[in-house]
Write a structure and sequence with these properties.
The protein is an alpha/beta fold and about 425 residues long. The protein has 18 helices and 13 strands.
């Protein structure tokens, strides 16, 4: 029998770790299991992880309910965890343990009849984020977007540096992975169902397949890398996009990959080798991309800038907790402007992207950089996806992906050319 007390203690500790240590949901879960043990919960580790993930994702909704109908003004992590488990069991039709029901009906007496009405609480996101989206999108569009951001979508990229596309897909299908192939990108497929986690498959472990979101792939496709190009990657770690550049050019491009962390660059080097990248054609540079200087101009530069990660909530709901701070996008904006401005000084063509649904990190960055730059022109990305937010002058030239439209993360993508 599932130990509800132990489960609530574990998922509460995961939320605490996410908030206090500012780490991803997976790192928080791993830490909690290592420190306190997860075996006594009497459910599989994978099921416990999914519960932890869903609890963190439901944080704002659960807290809203407790604060509106509960008798506790400042609910503890453990209280929130118990309320979450009670609601989940009720919604799934499962039996609610007598002890848990007694505690919930005592501490949250109106929970049975309470209806969550505000959009932000209903879809469990920071209130300010919902309000900001309502300024740039219609109400019904925001609802669809926020709902989609609560659904995990997994994409697999076949690494053709190590395996043939058809061979990889055939092996995956034999191992019980049901795929929906992308009609435009032959080496990409969405995971519909899998008999076990993709990370446990041999193809993943040996680098033949890579977990990379469709929006991330589109960013590299917008760059149009070619053989023998000199390419500057201004925010390269962990190296997934760099590896795709080398895949698309059959290890024939020359890449200068930048990051500000020695540790991240070291991990990136190992990852690129694992993926079959010719490391002799990749120069790893420890530098601040805002001030990096080069003698020659690159044919192309790629910027996947550090950002709020608001577009990646579906991948990691711990981002919702990080987004408690409404100033995060404004703080990122100046850094993004500085990196893009520097890239334009050193490149013929530049593709700028952020994994963000916020205009502060997309359209507003581009409009500010255009004011400062007279040598490059903003051009169509050629991707054939959604445009930007209509509130901005550049909306019909830049591109965006939306979780509810494209079934991938929310990205902003723009391209400049001389």
């Amino acid at each position: 029998m599932v130990n509800i007390d132990k489960v609530s203690a574990i998922i509460a500790s995961v939320l605490y770790t996410v908030e206090r240590r500012r780490v991803s949901i997976r790192r928080a879960f791993t830490y909690v299991c290592r420190e306190f043990g997860c075996g006594a919960a009497n459910i599989s580790r994978e099921e416990l992880f999914e519960l932890s993930r869903d609890f963190v994702s439901s944080y704002y909704k659960v807290r809203y309910i407790v604060e509106n109908v509960g008798r506790v003004s400042s609910p503890s992590y453990r209280t929130l965890a118990k309320v979450y488990l009670y609601l989940r069991l009720k919604e799934s039709g499962g039996a609610v343990p007598r002890k848990l029901k007694k505690v919930i009906l005592r501490d949250v007496p109106g929970i049975e009849d309470f209806e969550v009405k505000p959009i932000w609480a209903k879809f469990s996101c920071p209130k300010w984020l919902c309000e900001r989206l309502l300024e740039v999108l219609p109400d019904n569009e925001v609802e669809r977007l926020l709902e989609a951001m609560n659904r995990r979508v997994v994409w697999i990229r076949v690494n053709t540096l190590k395996i043939d596309v058809d061979k990889a897909f055939n092996i995956l299908e034999r191992e019980g992975v049901i795929l929906e192939h992308d009609g435009d990108i032959p080496f990409l497929a969405r995971v519909v169902k899998a008999s076990k986690p993709i990370r446990e498959l041999d193809l993943f472990k040996n680098g033949s397949i890579i977990l990379q979101d469709r929006a991330s792939v589109l960013t590299v496709l917008a760059a149009k890398p070619e053989r023998d190009m000199l390419i500057y990657d201004f925010a390269a770690a962990p190296g997934i996009k760099t590896s795709l550049i080398m895949q698309l050019t059959e290890n024939r491009a020359r890449v200068v990959a930048m990051d500000f962390s020695v540790k991240r660059l070291g991990a990136m080097k190992s990852l690129l080798k694992h993926y079959g990248v010719d490391i002799s054609r990749v120069d790893l540079i420890l530098t601040d991309s805002r001030a990096a200087a080069f003698k020659g101009l690159a044919d192309l530069s790629l910027i996947d800038a550090m950002c709020s990660s608001s577009g990646a909530i579906s991948k990691d709901p711990s981002i919702k907790i990080a987004l408690k701070n409404p100033d995060i996008a404004i703080k990122m904006k100046q850094m993004q402007i500085d990196i893009l401005s520097n890239a334009l000084r050193h490149s013929h063509s530049v593709v700028y992207s952020v994994c963000s649904i916020l205009p502060e990190e997309g359209e507003e960055v581009i409009e500010e950089v255009i004011k400062r730059n007279s040598h490059h022109k903003l051009v169509d990305t050629g991707l054939g996806i959604s445009r930007g937010y209509r509130n901005y002058s550049v909306w019909n030239i830049v591109s965006r992906t939306f979780p509810h439209i494209d079934r991938c993360e929310g990205f902003f993508i723009a391209r400049f050319e001389v």
